[in-house]
Design brief:
This protein is α/β, with parallel strands linked by helices. It is built from eight helices and 19 strands. Bound molecules: flavin-adenine dinucleotide (FAD). The site of flavin-adenine dinucleotide (FAD) has 41 residues, from helix 1, strand 2, strand 13 and strand 17.
Length: 385
């Protein structure tokens, strides 16, 4: 444990991933004096450090576009604001599409993105393969191209937010597991940890794939399930275009981006395991190799190694859960990003700040309330990998 947890705090944030740390920083920057982050492992040690680092505004749902656009602007300023290089590459995001139905669906999303001032374009197959030369043109019908998107380093973002938050007085306690949440007369009264109780009137649940349990302690239904996903890296790729975009083959969900002299790659498998076991399964590489052989070219001589496995925190409609619980006063949640939470970290941190301080949120997240499932108002995000 990094330090003894305090006996009381104004706000207790459960989870030290990108969401919890961004929220802590934004709360402290807004003048909230007594903020504590509790992380049972190391900072970023949950899903955040396992992310592929993709940062994109290319979504089909406007609330996601809004959150992602704010966040991308924050990533652009991150070095200056937090004195931390995050290795941001604005190499673009390319969604490869296979048939007319996909082209029509993404064209609708692209129009929506342009309404937000985003330079999103539908392009032909030849242009798509020119932008991403490792793509096998067979079966590419066209693409959605978002030139200002890209990727950056999740670990560096965690470091930057943690350092800035600490400078502003946030206490960050690692190695401290939360074991319960106390509710009295319908409002948050405290949290229990393996190292003592903390009395507080406000809890923020940013516990990622483990959020369902945290919600249960407070009597709040957070429908989040963990799903294991793998990432591989390659040996150096001869002649690799330094501008290689973050490329997603939407039908197979194969994705890759340049990582130093090689590639970082992922490809969800139908056999990906549900549950919080993030142990690597070497047989996944066979699945990846089979998809690569069909969808990519020029990589026959390139070595492939399993990088790591991590957990997606998945909701029934692949959209996040963000809000202030109706059941319990003082319980704010921001979780369930279903594979795109890293890129939303900055914007979501601002929204959590606003929910805690009871200001109108910078992005209207009313439709992301966890109660949407009981009210049968699920809000599907279609363009996920
Ligand atoms: C392979 C892979 C690739 C991905 N690629 C991308 C990508 O390219 N772009 C993108 O935007 N997103 C990506 N994601 C998704 C992204 O990683 C997550 O959506 C995001 O990191 C969620 O951040 P978080 O802070 O909510 O959760 P986490 O980073 O998981 O943080 C939650 C923290 O809570 C802690 N915790 C849980 N329970 C307790 C408890 N009881 N007490 C104390 N601490 C607790 C955990 O230890 C954990 O550190 C990817 C995910 C994976 C697995």
């Amino acid at each position: 444990m990094s330090e003894q947890p305090p006996v009381s705090a104004d706000v207790v944030i459960i989870g030290g991933g990108v969401i919890g740390l961004s929220a802590a920083y934004h709360l402290a920057a807004a003048g909230v004096a007594d903020v504590v982050v509790l992380e049972r492992g190391d900072l970023g040690g949950g899903s955040t450090s396992k992310a592929a680092g993709g940062v994109r505004t290319a979504f089909s749902d406007e609330v996601n576009i809004d959150l992602a656009q704010r966040s991308l602007a924050a990533f652009e300023r991150f070095g200056d604001e937090h004195d931390q290089d995050i290795d941001l590459h604005r190499s673009g995001y390319l969604f490869l599409l296979r048939d007319d139905a996909q082209l029509a669906d993404f064209a609708v999303a692209s129009r929506l993105q342009r309404r937000f001032g985003i330079d999103s374009q539908m392009i032909g197959a030849v242009e798509a393969c020119r932008l991403s030369p490792l793509v096998n043109p067979v079966e590419v019908a066209g693409a959605m191209w978002s030139p200002d998107d890209g990727h950056c380093s999740p670990e560096s973002v965690v470091l930057g937010y943690a350092r800035s938050a600490r400078r502003l007085g946030v206490r960050i306690v690692t190695g401290c597991e939360v074991t319960g949440v106390d509710v009295e007369s319908g409002r948050i009264a405290g949290v229990q940890t393996a190292h003592g109780a903390i009395s507080t009137r406000t809890v923020v649940c940013s516990a990622g794939a483990w959020s369902r349990q945290v919600g249960r302690w407070a009597g709040v239904d957070l429908p989040v399930d963990a799903l294991r996903r793998h990432v591989a890296t390659t040996s150096p790729v001869a002649g690799l275009d330094p501008h290689t975009p973050f490329t997603v083959d939407f039908a197979s969900s194969l994705y890759f981006h340049r990582e130093g002299p090689g590639l970082l790659m992922g490809a969800p498998d139908a056999d990906d395991v549900w549950g919080v076991d993030a142990a690597r399964d070497p047989s996944w590489l066979e699945h990846l190799a089979a998809v690569m052989q069909h969808r990519l070219v020029g990589l026959d001589e390139v070595g492939l190694r399993i990088g790591w496995a991590g957990l997606y925190e998945v909701t029934p409609d692949h959209n996040a859960l963000i809000g202030q619980a109706e059941e319990v006063e003082g319980f704010v949640y921001a979780t369930g990003f279903s594979g795109h939470g890293f890129l939303m970290g900055p914007g979501v941190g601002e929204v959590v700040r606003d929910l805690v301080t009871e200001r109108p949120p910078v992005v209207d997240v009313t439709t992301l309330a966890a109660t949407r499932f009981t009210a049968r108002e699920a809000r599907p995000e279609r363009h996920i990998v």
